[in-house]
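ok, trying the design again with the full structure, not the truncated one.
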């Protein structure tokens, strides 16, 4: 058996930051809060259409986070539509971003950070202007 896709990713955070993250991912990026089963801790599940793509989970007060990892998560990428509308929404919310492109794949990208500093790529399938 092999991996066939990405199911979701989980961000663990204190509740105050979790509320900021939920607001950012829903109001700015357009994810929608949806059903979450009772898991014994506080959190949210955020959806892109019918797919739950992001879990926000509250850290325990005494929870220790590993600091010895050799690598870090650089960014998570979302497939998106309507780049002009998204750029306008980012500017309206004073969110800095930079633009990139992969001409061979016909992809334009917007790179930004969420309120916790996690890297986000918004990927748009569209003609890319070649220099």
């Amino acid at each position: 058996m092999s991996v066939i896709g990405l199911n979701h990713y989980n961000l663990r955070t204190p509740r105050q930051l979790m509320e900021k993250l939920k607001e950012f991912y829903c109001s700015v990026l357009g994810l929608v809060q949806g059903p979450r089963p009772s898991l014994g801790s506080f959190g949210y599940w955020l959806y892109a259409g019918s797919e739950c793509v992001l879990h926000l989970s509250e850290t325990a007060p005494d929870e220790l986070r590993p600091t010895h990892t050799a690598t870090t998560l650089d960014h998570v990428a979302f497939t998106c539509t309507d780049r002009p509308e998204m750029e306008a929404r980012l500017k309206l919310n004073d969110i800095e971003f930079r633009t990139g492109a992969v001409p061979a794949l016909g992809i334009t990208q917007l790179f930004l950070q969420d309120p916790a500093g996690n890297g986000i790529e918004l990927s748009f399938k569209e003609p890319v202007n070649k220099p």
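Keeping the full-length input from now on. The chain is about 20% helix and 35% strand.
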